[in-house]
Amino acid sequence: VNGAVPTVAALDPQALARGVIAGDRVALGRALTLVESRKPAHQPLAEEMLAALMPHTSRAIRVGMSGVPGAGKSTLIERLGLDLIEAGHTVAVLAVDPSSHLTGGSILGDKTRMAGLAVRPEAFIRPSPAAGSLGGVARRSYESLLVCEAAGFDVVLVETVGVGQSETVVTTMTDTFVVLLTAGAGDELQGIKRGVLEEADIVVVTKADGGNENAARAARAQYEMALHLTRPAADNEQATPPVWAPRVLTLSAVTGQGVDTLWTTIAARQQFLERTGELARRRGGQALHWLWTEADAAVLEAFHGSADVQALAATLTAGVKTGELAATVAARKLALVFKP
Ligand SMILES: Nc1nc2c(ncn2[C@@H]2O[C@H](COP(=O)(O)OP(=O)(O)OP(=O)(O)O)[C@@H](O)[C@H]2O)c(=O)[nH]1
Ligand SMILES: [Mg+2]
Predict the structure, then answer these.
(1) What is the pLDDT of residue 138?
(2) Is the CB of 66 under 6 A from ligand 1?
């Protein structure tokens, strides 16, 4: 399914877009490989294809799932995904993992951990693009999400590893941010960073099974208390902007108990977002975020690649090192010599 991108000459971005929209899985795999590609020759083709796909995007429920390694993200996504298919949905699973350096792909979102889901024709699982800067990996995942929407999936689940700064990056591309935690690991509060709870729309205490139910319920109460210190306890749709109060749930991805409540909570939040107009506002803001992130990256790359900048830098650095020239003054000289 991870269709290789044919040679540039053989690539027809319009035909690829038509294939994606028609639900052709080979075309989808190729389209995703194209947006993930770093080859300069692929970029204009990817851009033309995305332009053709854009009218078919923005149709799915977009959910981000974050949690430390081993928290149970893949197991939950498999369970939830299978339940959603049972209910008539189609599900795409993406991953954002900048730490991955395994053969250009990621263990995150690995199909072997979602074996039941991977074989379903109603599902599509795409591992994280190759390791790189967080911004670079996340940008590709954002484009992959758009491609999957154009392919007709009505739910997109994005798995993100909860380490470094990557845990909250899914909030720049999803409607609902689910944070997975477990009880009994001594991690109730410590180990989980404040910024993550600040951003969470739904907190899930998972692995509530096999005698772990009481610990999970206790952890849930603790997280609820902690959340209420900084977050509202009830929704307020009249406020500007409207306020969503984070929910805290317990569930087991192994027995399946509580997974239905997670979905009804995600669906309730989606209705809240639509009712209040927040969905369009949030997605518009996310699109602008990616506009400026991408523009910044492009300008920075051109700046560092500029012969003028490199030549002037070569003459300025010695003086900056010895202190004859202020670093800040040299920096402005470099910026002024740059002509795109
Ligand atoms: N008992 C129990 N075990 C679970 C549950 N969910 C996941 N596990 C187990 O926890 C381990 C890690 O689960 P994964 O789903 O791979 O966790 P992950 O968060 O995707 O991990 P990474 O992708 O490595 O970040 C596996 O051994 C699972 O079988 C659950 O609800 N109950
Ligand atoms: Mg996983």
Answers:
(1) 84
(2) no
